[in-house]
């Protein structure tokens, strides 16, 4: 038998989601700036790298695939790599060095000055994303923080910080997906591919 709380939970999640989404327009300048920085990097032969944990790892992969595959328009493939997908690299680096290093070490191997790294973290405090952001800055890689809560430790490390104004992880992730899709649209537009 279905629990009587099921419709109530969905309604309250929906209410919370809609309240948050009504506030997201305040992030328009940061989202536009992030789209411009990524498009400029791609136009110069750079690439977009992404990292995050759990649901944010899925978001990183999702956005990368919109670039290498396609988003809306039929166009050339674009350089997007999620640092979350290589289970051999993740387990080797995690096992032999530290889990905090799993993204930073891949970034040192694969990143180049002129690339952009998006770090996705709802708390802004995931240590492996923080290490990756610090490494990006050392390497001349633009760091875009796709964050939540108060932006955490990642906010001051971000060249562009997009901080979703919520303390609920799931709602923040829902907003991150909208922003990720918007970045893909902005990239296609800025590169004249739309
Ligand atoms: O998807 C969810 C929760 O909705 C989880 O997998 C969540 O992403 C994980 O707990 C992450 O480790 C949280 O990391 P962060 O967002 O604080 O950086
Ligand atoms: Zn989730």
Explain what this protein looks like in three dimensions.
The structure is a single chain. The protein is of the alpha/beta class. Helices cover 53% and strands 13% of the residues. The chain has seven helices and five strands. It has helices at residues 6-23, 28-43, 55-68, 87-96, 102-110, 127-139, 169-190, and strands at residues 48-52, 80-82, 116-121, 142-148, 160-164. The protein has a five-stranded parallel beta sheet with strand order 2-1-3-4-5, with helices on both faces. Strand 3 (116-121), helix 6 (127-139) and strand 4 (142-148) form a beta-alpha-beta unit. Helix 3 runs parallel beside helix 7 and helix 5 packs parallel to helix 6. It starts with 5 loop residues before the first helix and ends with a helix. The model has no long low-confidence stretch (mean pLDDT 96). It binds D-altro-hept-2-ulose 7-phosphate (I22) and zinc ion. D-altro-hept-2-ulose 7-phosphate binds next to helix 3 and helix 7. Belongs to the SIS family. GmhA subfamily. Its cofactor is Zn(2+). Homotetramer. InterPro entries: GmhA/DiaA, Phosphoheptose_Isoase, SIS_dom, SIS_dom_sf, SIS_GmhA/DiaA_subfam. Residues 38-193 form the SIS domain.
Secondary structure: helix percent: 40-55%
Distance between the termini: 49 Å
Q: What is the radius of gyration computed over CA atoms, rounded to a whole number of angstroms?
A: 17 Å
DSSP helix count? Answer: 7
Tell me the fraction of residues in β-strands, as a range.
5-15%
Q: What is the mean pLDDT?
A: 96
Bound molecules: D-altro-hept-2-ulose 7-phosphate, zinc ion
Structural class by sheet pairing and helices: alpha/beta
EC number: 5.3.1.28
Cofactor: Zn(2+)
Catalytic activity: 2 D-sedoheptulose 7-phosphate = D-glycero-alpha-D-manno-heptose 7-phosphate + D-glycero-beta-D-manno-heptose 7-phosphate
Organism: Ideonella oryzae
